[in-house]
């Protein structure tokens, strides 16, 4: 439509010229305008973050397949009931099985990563079998047992769906404290699996309510009256022909959750259920026919596989943040609100300094998480390669154990840090969309509800952060003992240089350098870890045992771990940026500096406390963050485009790539809420508003009051 | 059951003595133990916070009435569908109407406050008519018009339910930018209400989808082609006899939201709808028969009523925090996890220093919000008394305007600060409940979803915080000009004393004093407000206009407002505590100091930046927070009990007063999820697990692998 035509139409619609002017800039034009600003090759950035063009193409292929698969229809997801969602989630199994059996492990892993972004509930439900149950077999079964259960159909889902029964009503993180018992009955050569108390009820068991035929049950091994700790047992739950529960098994539905309602979490109680002795997974601990218990020697070597979940969650935190920011930033690029005194065209949200402050640091953080996730995955894969076949007595066993320890602590800390970051990013994005963020259809509320559990499962975030803190203290003590530490905590080998070091720059602008920021973080982290270490030592000197001492200084541990994680992310980001050149470097270095300075500003107390930066330097950093927010804002849409998430994946009218947010949003709301007969007018409203309310009202002559008597200009 | 009996039963259940020991401390006993620690009169604290015994008794009466009213049944709320919830919400109208018509305004306000804690969706839906629609009449109608609409049934809901049609798809906070038009047609003496564009669609209108017969519509007044700004018009929407929409009115359902699904939010489009001229509410602007527009002189005087919502939300933030903390702290008092090396009895969560750190500062903050809410309500009531009948030319008009300005800014800042605090408190409480926090039945997830909108409606929190920031800058400039400021910002009259002032204490312990903390906050706030003011002045000197200058320094404004709010809350809390004595004082002063020091720790960067505290003092504050957390933890259950929320109000098995959390939780889960036939076994699971998967599996002789061949002890 030409401007003249628009004007004519505007006049017809009782629009004043002012309003017509305000209309002149429509959302699609606004979005195009932003996209035209790209100062770098968006595709190149996508490929960089994906780890190569092949990975990008694979990702695009999978996104397209999902979008075209009617089972993966997602735009009606907010209005279907829990039972519909449960059923639809189960329905997706068959299509995923096809891929599982016909593509490489690497491709399937990528597929699952993308599926988790589209339908986290399905991803979990499917993962309960393939990740948790099959993972438990792989970690705990002897080769013979593995063959047996695979032969029974555990891999192909033939008469077999597994679930993972670890947590109990009264016990979550404390696995050694689980109450379920597995008592060896020598006479019958069986274990008796039993739920002795209410709190021993297996709880939150994904797949238990409607899917599983078998469970990997974690229970206290009791042989000849002696407890041998928590072991894993395969327990049949249901007859696969009828899905009736087997004798002694009681299962119920856990019901409604905050999110991920597609998963059929259940509770299980066992009442003296007998299973063959060989159903105990005996790769590590073995129980013989005569009740001899053989304990494993280096069980730590088996922990590696348990870290997979955490590593995946670092990547998921980065991916979900990308999805949330795609919505909030695209919306901010087209949403206009208030106009300055100089123009009638309202200002884009993205042009408000405060809106830049709300979103740009989170965008920078998301890039930092993305680079970190890649590195974390590499670290994990490297570790698994080293662990493969490693056994006690190997020449390099100490080194392998060291790598395991580092990966364990790093993944613990990053899982916590990145899932917390992601959860707050989703909420910040939701709030940044104003009222529309409260609509289910704009996608951020369910994203929050679905994601929130990531802060709790596979290790409560606070507990995981404390684990990293413990590792930092022990690394500090190792360093004092002269040990050369691994790179992630290498700065603790330089305590004498770092403690007391101040920022030395000739000009304030010299602060804007990754090297200097890295140094600053090292100084601060060295100080807080050292403080925690000193506090810990003091506790030991007061006579506390190691555990009590760690408990006593848990706040210092938490603080140290948190700062270490900020620093760690910045290092990964700076590393990543140092490897690129040209216009890609030009844009990424700004994003990287923004993350660095923002993270310093967020922790200004620590930088001032240890006097690395002076108050004036902190002031400079604060204003630099403002400037960098503005700089990054200029490339915000191209940067978000580089996340390369299709409209289907984002599944939010506010995050539409074309910027046509209002049209898509209105369509979605109308489509999802077709007009119907009034559902309860006759039953509820009519009796209410037509009831007898006394005689004072409804007098027609009261209309007299409507017109104001002193209608002044007519006097 | 005696201990001997327990032991016998334990042995029968295959329990080892260790497990039996761990069972010895049951949740109810744990709770009783905590309650027995009370070192103060719980009832006295309840009465203090309620503002007198009469208020406490009233609150208890209302809680009991609600609990006994079958319409207010709440324990099945998590499993009913949106349409059931909508219908049930409407059903509650009649019982509330009864109270509305039969009790004093004060009593009814208290009732609504309590209802909002039980069923925030209903509270909103009912409030749309009585708060927003009737409020719009009261603020904007002439006495005659008010009488007319009341005569039509607007007060008694007789053939009349109102809604409040302000926000549009494309406009939320920017009311002057609304696009809906109300064009005066002199020939017919009518206004033509029209939705000119998609973005002008009225959006989020509570009550529009299913309830309202009339709307208070905010639209651009156009008379003789000239725009006169946004005014309020009463527009009939539906025939009250049939609930069919009237000609030219199109209404749709906004559908699923993050929370509060009991409200029937709708969208409305007007297509040249004619209404009588007198349906424009003409208390302020008047339009005569001949199209003469008479603008109001001092419209600001009418803004007072608009602040009611914000003031209510400060109280709601405090109340909802109390509810969330009742759940998390009671659960932490009975939940045990991990045992130290010295005992087999697992440790209560509440005894972990890190868990104290997670919850005790939030408990302290909630007390601060509670005292602040009381003061904010008093300030508002005082203002309304002064505003009543105030008009241009009154001798005290300047003073009245000053009070209005202060209440406006204070309520803006506190609404934002307290609703943000409350939202994070809910989430922190949810995470502190571990996995169970993710269950719908434990109540925290829906509390979060319901509360989240408070950060957006009645003014987006960021924008409101900026408003406070603007007030702080203008107060700073007034102070420089020699004006004596109102108490809330009185510290800005002492800039010469405060700027550069350092904490002067002989001994570190002297920091533990409300007076010193107040001084510290004044110094910090004086500095940040002054910095923002200097930045603002510099912008003006560079030639920016006032609005641009404010925009430019929005980050400094936000920062100043945030710190001012911390300080404000601490002042209110310290004020409140200074008025009590004895054992109540002894416990409250610790809670108060905890809030003070925690708030300093959270903003350590600012205290170090302006050098009020030295790094060593900040270290002392950090460790004092640890100690105070431990102190407050000792009284945590009595403190939570003083919130005096019944089990019905809390509606969470984890928050049960008796501590019997597992029994209640398991009961709730079972009751809410009765066992049924498998819903989709035949359709989905059977075909999946019995499909042909190729010939390799299901060979019975594969059982051979199950037994490990090198079953060593038998060799």
UniProtKB/TrEMBL annotation, chains A, B:
Q: Does the keyword Flavoprotein apply?
A: yes
Q: Which residues form a coiled coil?
A: none
Where is this chain primarily localised? other
Domain annotation Acyl-CoA oxidase C-terminal: ranges: 514-689
Q: Where are the transmembrane segments?
A: none
The Acyl-coenzyme A oxidase N-terminal domain, residue ranges: 41-151
Its keywords, alphabetically, are: FAD, Fatty acid metabolism, Flavoprotein, Lipid metabolism, Oxidoreductase, Peroxisome
**Needed co-factor(s):** FAD
Q: Where does FAD bind?
A: 167, 206
Spell out the GO cellular component terms annotated for this protein, sorted alphabetically and separated by semicolons. peroxisome
**Residue intervals of the Acyl-CoA oxidase C-alpha1 domain:** 303-473
Q: Which residues does the UniProt record annotate as the domain Acyl-CoA oxidase/dehydrogenase middle?
A: 163-273
Per the UniProt entry, what are the Gene Ontology biological process annotations, in alphabetical order? fatty acid beta-oxidation using acyl-CoA oxidase; lipid homeostasis
The protein's matches in PANTHER family, at most eight in alphabetical order, are given as: ACYL-COENZYME A OXIDASE-LIKE PROTEIN, ELECTRON TRANSPORT OXIDOREDUCTASE
Q: How does it assemble?
A: Heteropentamer composed of five different subunits.
- Specify the protein name: Acyl-coenzyme A oxidase
What is the originating organism of this protein? Mucor saturninus
